[in-house]
Amino acid sequence: MNDILLQLGNNPQARRLVKTLGLPLPIPQTLARAKSAIEARPLHDYEIAVGGHRGEGESALLEVLAKTLTKAGASPLVVGGVEIPRAFRDHGDAWGRPPRGLLLDALPDELRLDAMVFDATQITDAAGLRSLYEFFHPLVRSLVKCGRVVLLARPPALAPSPEAAGAQAAVEGFCRSLAKELGKRGSTANLIHVDEEAEPLIEGPLRFLLSTRSAFISGQPIHVSARTVDDEALADWSPAQVRSLEGKVALVTGAARGIGKATAKLLADEGAHVVCLDRPADDELLSAVAREIDGTPLLVDVSDPEAPARIAQTLREDHGGVDIVVHNAGVTRDKTLARMKPEQWDLTVAINLDAVVRINDALLADDGPLLDDGRVIVLSSIAGIAGNLGQTNYSATKAGVIGYVRRLADELDGRGVTVNAIAPGFIETRLTAAIPVMIREVGRRLSSLGQGGLPRDIGDAITFLATPAAQGLTANVVRVCGQSFVGA
Amino acid sequence: MPVSKQDQPKQRAVIVSGVRTPFVKAFAEFLPLDTIALGDAAVAALLKRTELPRREIDSIVWGGVILPGSAPNVAREIALDLGLPPSVEGMTCTRACASGLQAITLAVAAIERGEADVVIAGGSDSTSNAELKVPQKLVRTLGPMMMGPNKGKATPRDMLAVLSQLTPITDLLPRIPKIAERTTGEIMGESAEKMAVRNEISRQAQDEFAVRSHHRAAEAIASGRFRDEIAPVETPSGKWVHQDTIVRGDTSVEKLAKLRPVFSRDGSLTAGNSSPLTDGASAVLIMSEDKAKALGYTALARFASWSYVGCDPADQLLMGPALAMPQALARAGYELDDMDLVDMHEAFAAQVLSVLSMLASDNFARARLGRDKAVGEIDPAKLNIHGGSVALGHPFGATGARMVTTMANELHQSGKVTALIGICAAGGLGAGAVLENAGA
């Protein structure tokens, strides 16, 4: 990676010089990223302002919000109201994180907030949206660099009336614009759409989105549902957070370098045994990755007709099945359609989409190795959402992945298997290093965070989706793009 | 929940006697006595007072935190210093502030497994004699040249190379040891300060607790209650130290309120409501029940259970007892209400009060202990009835044995049946133990 603006920004003197000269250089904020495996308290000593729109009765999210924040090590500053809700007092007592009240018209002078969480689920009409303004307007300046905002709303499609649907959908627009406002300081804003009855499942996504592991995700809605969990399990929901992939087997395709390599390492950090797959030509690189993480190398060309059967057989016989499947292998063969050769079209489609489908067919067959409560994660791209000049072939496959993932999720609900897509934006890899310099520079800057992401940003998102705590996410397309302006 | 082989012990171990040196503020009267010398004094006094035939002793188990680098097995040094039979073997253990209790439970376990009949267990520490540490960088740079396979063959060029590695000089100066967590770098008072905030323990409550500790300790001294437990020590200069020097019977909440916070500018922990650095030693005589009977000793108390736990030092460093004490109770088949006495190590008043509030919380019990109801509230009349570490001082390795001695004597003298012990320790460790009156 060679991002000169980011390097300039890291040099205090250069930063000051740019500022004094008034140069029109948007110097991006270096993002705070996680340094170790997932911690028991990812929000240790965070000060988090918590607010919400008050409807009739108590919000169904109070309990899980209070538990998640205090257990994760955060001190809640509960905004407004006469009395702090009981849930915050009880969970604060259990975890030694007593809640404090925060009065918006009498804020303390040196207020520094690591994050803000707003429960918008009880907004039912346009007038109710004013609580968003009332909560964020006085607080937004107190958010630290690389801070976090998470909003919680109900899926508009499930709203009881068109008016309520409008109000809930409005929250998404608010979130996306707020994210753009926060991006230059490295902060993010994201939205969780939570189904009724799925409330306990937001613990994992909330911990993830508030932590440094979601550094390059901003302006995104995530949908949490209970469709893969039965009622009994839901009533007593408390998945492992630390080393939660111990005893699990993960397959990562394209693991020799870039995103695949970063993902394999992060999965191994959580205790998974990783089967690292790549082309036979990358034997040396792949073996080095596998050796480093105590994984198993598997040299297969995913576009080979024999590949699906061989992969399934290896996983079944050598590893007793597979829990996590990450389809990361992909190629670009960029050319305008008029100039594209047929083999460029064919290769891209064969690897990026066809191979994914055929390998999954083999893994999901009746005697296939995919285990219950498993995870299927497929790499899409923002090119698949927005399209890109010279990428008709690539965009077709990456859009295809999204349709495929959403439909496949329906088939696997009953087995507890979740299926999701990750859509990376501009990530500093071999693929993007090959882009001509001017286009590359534009790609980097055209996002709220004003910089490219790192392979580990994608790996962090994939690893989160692989954990038991992400059980509520299925049929999601999670964009990890720093809120790229492309296709937003 | 079994504890090693405690379910079916070969024989029961009983506590027969305990003696300690006075506890003295660090860098004062005991400055010339290192941890071994202090241990010598405590064990010698124990032998004298119990008139124990020396051939009966099987071993010494000793706890310590600041161990002398040249002779870390303090237990064996004590046996040799006192001229005990060479067959009296010795081992030294370390578990931060729970080291003394650890030594005792090791001795009890050995006796109950039938490996020994008579063991002296205890611990000592001399903060005054902590060794200044030469930085590892110096050792690693100079060591190979002086002791490595090519020693004595260094050329001037090698010497220069080594010298260039040894800059800046500040990296090489010996460092004064401090009680900082290795993993978090936080000194213990800072961690306790955070606990005070997180558990909403007020300065007033801490000062009141500290004053009670001082008043109760002063009363125990004045009434002669500690006469059996404390043996005077003669320093090399010929001066005798008869009594604990830290206890202030005349202190008051008003006086303590004037002290400035020491760990954080707007904090609530002061020198008055924290335990001070202390020098001292404490020894306990433990025997199998049959042996005690055969030798004509009165059994004071026995262990019903014990428990050691660990928690994340980066979270609430000193909350360990809130986990260990309930576990020890459960292992012994008791509830908190069954306890006649409770003795908790007072690292800081804030830490004891934090643990008490955790034990009294239903929410804590549900989230952290898997219990429906709180462990319970501890009646102040039962808690640390003769004061604690804030008033008496806290020689790290000696405190556990001091607490066991005081509780064993209290059970015996008062005829009460049960006592619960709780100790917090560095590294996020916690210890709990249940004692029963051996005569009841």
TrEMBL record, chain A:
Recorded GO MF terms = 3-oxoacyl-[acyl-carrier-protein] reductase (NADPH) activity
| Record carries keyword Cytoplasm | no
For this protein, the record's Gene3D superfamilies field holds:
NAD(P)-binding Rossmann-like Domain (3.40.50.720)
Q: Where is the Ketoreductase domain?
A: 248-425
Q: Name one Pfam family in it.
A: adh_short_C2
Signal peptide residues are none
Catalytic EC class: oxidoreductase
Q: Which UniProt keywords apply?
A: Oxidoreductase
E.C. no: 1.1.1.100
Looking up InterPro entries in the UniProt record yields:
KR_dom, NAD(P)-bd_dom_sf, SDR_fam
**Which family is this sequence assigned to?**
Belongs to the short-chain dehydrogenases/reductases (SDR) family.
- Known NCBIfam families for this protein? PRK08261.1
Q: Write the protein's name.
A: 3-oxoacyl-[acyl-carrier-protein] reductase FabG
Q: Which organism is this entry from? A: Enhygromyxa salina
Q: Which gene encodes it?
A: fabG_5
Automatic annotation (TrEMBL), chain B:
UniProt pathway annotation: Lipid metabolism; fatty acid beta-oxidation
**Which SUPFAM superfamilies does the UniProt entry name for this protein?**
Thiolase-like
* InterPro entries with a match to the protein in the record: Thiolase, Thiolase-like, Thiolase_AS, Thiolase_C, Thiolase_CS, Thiolase_N
Thiolase N-terminal domain ranges (all copies): 14-290
UniProt GO MF annotations: acetyl-CoA C-acetyltransferase activity
Q: List the catalytic residues.
A: 97, 394, 424
Domain Thiolase C-terminal, chain residue ranges per copy: 298-436
Q: What class of enzyme is it?
A: transferase
Q: Name the source's superkingdom.
A: Bacteria
What keywords is this UniProt entry annotated with?
Acyltransferase, Cytoplasm, Fatty acid metabolism, Lipid degradation, Lipid metabolism, Transferase
**Any one of the GO BP annotations:** fatty acid beta-oxidation
Q: What is its EC number?
A: 2.3.1.16
Transmembrane stretches, by residue range? none
| Similarity comment: family membership | Belongs to the thiolase-like superfamily. Thiolase family.
The record's annotation in NCBIfam families points to: AcCoA-C-Actrans
State the PANTHER family in the record.
Answer: ACETYL-COA C-ACYLTRANSFERASE, TRIFUNCTIONAL ENZYME SUBUNIT BETA, MITOCHONDRIAL
The name under which this protein is listed is acetyl-CoA C-acyltransferase
- Organism expressing this protein natively: Enhygromyxa salina
